[in-house]
Design a protein that fits this description.
Elements (H helix, E strand, L loop, with lengths): L1 H6 L2 H10 L3 E5 H8 L7 H5 L15 H5 L3 E7 L4 E6 L4 H7 L2
Antiparallel strand pairs: 1-3, 2-3
Length: about 100
Amino acid sequence: MMKDRSKKYDAITEYLKDNGGSQVTLTFTQFDELLFPHSGLPKTARTDADWWANDYRHPEKGAYGWLNADYEVVQINLFKEYVVLNQLVKSNWFATYENK
């Protein structure tokens, strides 16, 4: 069951890995169209900022999707329906530095 739930958000992971810069802003409509074409975003994502928490302990929420792509939610606006994600910058600098 747990595996299926995390797979549900693989589209988010893939999208961010393929298209993400250091910061990505996505509207709820983009999430609906790009990532959840059959079901749309869960209703709770539109009404409850907690759904967007950067928290692995709640696989039914979206966090796996962006955390697995090394992103974190830094801003959520339920009224204007968008979310801002920043790339976690833990490895890039070190990798570049060590390879010199």
